[in-house]
Amino acid sequence: MNKDLSRPLVSVIIPMYNAADYITETINSVLKQTYQNYEIIVVDDCSTDQSVVLVKEMMTWVPDLNLLENPTNSGVAISRNKGVAAAHGRYICFLDADDLWLPTKLEKQLAFAEANGHAFTFTAYQFADENGTSLNKIVKVPAKISYQESLRNHTIFTSTVMLDLHQLTKEQIAMPDVRRGQDTATWWKILKVTGYAYSLPEALSIYRRVKSSLSANKLKAIKRTWYLFRKVEGLSLIQTIIPFIGYAYNAVKRRI
Question: FRET pair for 241, CA 20 to 30 Å: which of 57, 97, 172, 223?
Answer without folding.
Answer: 172
